[in-house]
Amino acid sequence: MKSLVFKIIVIAIFLSSHVFAQSQLVKNLRKGKHQVLVVYGTSLTAGDGGRAWVDSIGTGLNKKYGGNLTVLNAAKSAMWSGWGIQNLEDSVINKKPDAVMIEFGMNDAFLNYKTSPALARLNLIYMIDRIKLYNPACEVILQVMDIPINVHAEARPNLTAYYEMYRQVAVDRRLLLIDHYPHWQRILDQGKDLYLKYVPDGIHPSPESAKSIIAPYVLKRLEEGD
Question: Is 100 inside a domain boundary?
């Protein structure tokens, strides 16, 4: 009898921790609450591949949770966190989001934008704090994206520092982080020729690879969390 009780307790703890680990967005969808998710960032979110993964997660979550999610893509190609803070009110706050996904690391690292990792961090923290000021319950989710190669890598020689900054801010602020980098690194480790089949121009994943690689992992992280 004691053994059975112990097993029940273990299972209950596991199930409760699993639910707790989910993103707040998914928790609210599970409760039948309508949610507004705003995705904010660069062409990795705004471009053809970006729209592909964003649309896929919207479709996936709405299919599972009764159509209660509205996804708004507020990203813009060729932009960085300086643009992000300047347009945060109109592009994000005014849309009254329940959750916001942010990725500006790729273009903050672009040399022409003259945005140091320290400045990029200040910009990111400003966006997080402003969103939380609007609504303390609004979930902020950070993303680390793919790996540029060839001329795109040369224009971003310190990219790993910006990606590491995102990881550290996620830890410091206890935010959900969706880190795509390891998936792309595994592909790149097999050679540039293979990588270019997934990322044809050396920086933007194709719509097909965005749907097959990015979207499933975003859904997994939203469902399972940490």
Answer: yes
What is the per-residue pLDDT for 102?
A: 98
The answer to whether 97 touches 24, Cβ cutoff 8 Å, is no
In the chain, alpha helices (H): 2-21, 24-30, 43-46, 48-64, 81-86, 88-91, 105-108, 117-134, 151-154, 159-173, 181-188, 192-198, 207-209, 215-224
C-alpha–C-alpha distance, residues 61 and 66, integer Å: 8
Higher pLDDT, residue 7 or 79: 79
- pTM to 2 decimal places: 0.90
Rounded Cα distance, 148 and 184, in Å: 10
Count CB neighbours of 72 within 10 A.
18
Question: Rounded to whole angstroms, how far apart are CA atoms 62 and 56?
Answer: 10
Q: How confident is the model at residue 4 (pLDDT cuts 50, 70, 90)?
A: very low
In this structure, is residue 219 part of a structural domain? yes
Q: What's the domain count of the chain? A: 1
